[in-house]
Amino acid sequence: MSVVVVDLLRQLLSPPAEHRLDVRDRVVVITGAGTGIGRALAEKLYASGASVALIDIDQAAAAAVGRSMGERALVVRADVSDRIGMREAISRVRERFGRIDVVVANAGVVPEPATIRTMNPGDFDRVIGINVTGVFNTVHPALEDIVAAKGHVVVVSSAAAFAPGMAGSPYMVSKAAVEQFGRALRVELAAVGATAGVAYFGIVDTAMTHGTLDEDDLGADLGALLPWPLNLRITVRDAAESIADGIARRAARTIAPPQWEPYALFRGVINVVLDSRLARDPRVHDLIHRVEQRVIDVDHPVTPIPR
Question: Where do transmembrane segments lie in this chain (predicted)?
């Protein structure tokens, strides 16, 4: 059923063929391009004929990807949370290729599991600084290029933007903010002939996912609470295919896997019911207590947590 809904929406929302965007001979900027989704997308778009700027804080990882490509690849080390550094990075891309047609703001991080009561405020600031401010820092200095080229911007949000956020609220907050940023950008750029879209993913099989859900006992228990089909995973290649397809269609939104689509469409109703159920679920209560106890055991070993 969800696949039918996705196909119908795609037909209704896809632009006419003459407005599609072929990345061949175009210049694409991708942040977080050294690993995961960013790397898979860079490789795909490069193979399709694009020139690709690989921006990552990990110089070695991005350089390894660049070496596997060729002269149409540019490696730039930059921290997306550094506004001046990102402005300089975008300038380097412009100097090298003379234009920028597509920007994909992909870089992101997840916090250590913690409740709002027990989290380190610095962890909250770090996630917002990279996942939200970093998106602004990536997109803003390239917008005049995007307008001139009548190009396209993709901001990578997540199904976490509309999913419950207990024990990981900074990430959910950040992805909800990115969603709203992308929606605003879509409408604003339409007035000048350019486009923007928001990419949403469920669980993507990345090192970040393994560290959060698989290699952490509490993360694994949290993942076990997800019902089918919300617990389905996709590969980084699947995610890259989704973004690449969205660029070609100048899509306002892409969601992968498609089983998340009904949730996205009916989130207003679903979340009212879901939040109520989660607030009364003893399994969730136990998980929250365990998360808080672990944080306190690390930071204040002798302080008990009230039950």
Answer: none
263 is catalytic: no
Q: CA–CA separation, 203 vs 163, rounded Å?
A: 12
Query: What is the identity of the amino acid at 170?
Result: P
The predicted pLDDT at position 68 comes to 95
Task: Summarize pLDDT for 224-243 with one digit per residue, the tens.
Answer: 777 776 788 999 999 999 99
Query: Can you tell me the distance from the alpha carbon of 269 to that of 275, in angstroms, rounded to the nearest whole number?
Result: 10
Its domain, for residue 143, covers: 20-208+230-258
Instruction: List C-alpha distances in Å: 114 to 175, 201, 225, 287.
Output: 17, 22, 17, 11
Q: Above pLDDT 70, what percent of the chain?
A: 87
Tell whether 87 is covered by a domain: yes
Segment 121-126 shows an average pLDDT of: 97
Query: In sequence order, which residues have a C-beta less than 8 Å from that of residue 300 and are 6 or more positions away?
Result: none
Number of domains in the chain: 1
Sequence-distant (6+) residues with CB within 8 A of 141 are 86, 87, 90, 91
pLDDT digits (tens, 9 = 90+) for 68-81: 999 999 999 999 99
Marked catalytic residue, from 46, 171, 200, 263? 171
Prediction pTM value: 0.89
Which domain CATH number covers 182? 3.40.50.720
**pLDDT reported for residue 224:** 75
- Give the distance, in angstroms, between the CA of residue 56 and the centroid of all CA atoms in the same chain: 14
* Phi, psi for residue 145 in degrees, rounded to 5: -65, -45
Residue 107 half-sphere exposure toward CB, CA atoms < 13 A? 33
Considering the domain boundaries, does residue 199 fall inside one?
yes
Query: In this structure, are strands 152-156 and 203-204 parallel, antiparallel, or unpaired?
Result: unpaired
